[in-house]
Please model this.
Amino acid sequence: MDLRVQIFAVIASGGLLLGVLELVRRRRMLERYALLWLFSAVVLLVLAVWKGALGLIADAIGVIYPPTALFVVAFGFILFLLLHFSLAVSRLTDQTKVLAQRLALVEARLREHRQMLDEDGDEFVEAGEESPRESLFGRR
Model:
């Protein structure tokens, strides 16, 4: 592998590793997702530094130029991460649907209770509002 390509690969992998660590430090990325990114950055960094391992992988997958194998491995990690995040988004979509349905049920029950209170002649006051009696005579 050419020295310039190896230096670029080491800098790019190291930058990815430092970027993920900084995102975790600033609490912009959750730890469970950061573990996947950290693992992929460390593997890419090891492959960029250790020429022999990259050569073995290149021979195993039939690539003539070893730095191309580094990009093939990186592409494989990206595909894996996309699959993982697609599963996470699907799960969150299902949870959002269930929460919206539960909220609709709670709102319907609240409306029923308000109608029952109105029919009974009791006065119903929203949270934070003063009743007409309190506004005229002051709070007790």
Summary: The mean pLDDT is 85. The CA atoms of residues 102 and 108 lie 10 Å apart.
